[in-house]
Amino acid sequence: MTDLRPDFPNHLPFHDQNTVDPGENAPVILLHGFGGDRQTWQNTQTALSSKVRSLAFDLPGHGQALDWPRIGNAGIAAKAVAQSLEHLALAKVHLVGHSMGGAVAALVALNDPERVASLTLLAPGGFGPEINHRLLRRYATTSDVEGMEVLLEQFFGWEFRLPKFLAKTAADSRARPGATATLEAIVEEIIDGTVQKTLPRDELAALKIPIKVIWGTQDRVLPTRQAHKLPGIVATHIFERVGHMPHLEIPKEVTRLILQNAGVN
């Protein structure tokens, strides 16, 4: 991106969790989904902290990057992430992305394969045309706690007990000036009418890096069948009774798979 205003940094806002020797392993970069922010990775970063450094970014139009000069689809976010990695002099990273962040991570790897050591994709966007466009559009525009709670329940498995603070936190984020309009603009770039744009899955599989795809059988945002019949080189992990938020629903298993893909014992 070359259109950054002078009052903006040259990298996306991020939280850096580092309690290990940074020279030992490439850091893990965590990219959240649509309508979220880097706080969604807080517990994941804590769990990773004894093994590897991790950085969780706010994608353009989200969190502290709400007023980022350019917002839009996964391709635009991927450019911002790539610029941020370059500015922070991170020559080699392990990318972890959830939902829209999964599509962003995949695009970063396709555009700069030498920088990416592994890909771990949680219910990633772009793996098939089907998407719950009605749910995402409502999620973009809802700002009251009660309505947000009803919507968020659709993101998790049927048995998951939704913490009360999640709905309030999400509703509070919509109260910021411009937040709802920004998400509305982004969701309309993600969704093409009633479907989503797709990634070149064969090109992803051709990357000479380990790739894991993690999905839940009760995902009501992106159907689990998008993980079926992936190229054989891609490791696919399907979890029963899990929805669209595996990092929050089965955090221990997700952390284990991230570390495994990063080659960290």
Order of helices and strands: EEHEHEHEHHHHEEHEEHH
Tell me what portion of residues adopts beta-strand conformation. Answer: 15-25%
Low-pLDDT ranges? 1-6
Quickly count the helices. 10
End-to-end distance, in Å? 37 Å
**Helix residue percentage:** 25-40%
Give the CATH topology: Rossmann fold
* Total strands: 9
Report on this model:
The protein is of the alpha/beta class and 265 residues long. The chain has helices at residues 42-48, 74-87, 100-111, 133-141, 145-153, 164-174, 179-190, 201-206, 246-249, 251-261, and strands spanning 14-17, 28-31, 54-57, 93-98, 116-122, 191-192, 195-196, 211-216, 235-239. It has a single domain (14-261), classed as 3-Layer(aba) Sandwich (Rossmann fold). The protein contains ten helices and nine strands. It has a seven-stranded mixed sheet, with helices on both faces. A two-stranded antiparallel sheet has the order 6-7. Strand 4 (93-98), helix 3 (100-111) and strand 5 form a beta-alpha-beta unit.
Helix-strand layout with pairing:
Blueprint: E1 14-17, E2 28-31, H1 42-48, E3 54-57, H2 74-87, E4 93-98, H3 100-111, E5 116-122, H4 133-141, H5 145-153, H6 164-174, H7 179-190, E6 191-192, E7 195-196, H8 201-206, E8 211-216, E9 235-239, H9 246-249, H10 251-261
Helix pairs in contact: 1-10, 2-3, 4-7, 5-6
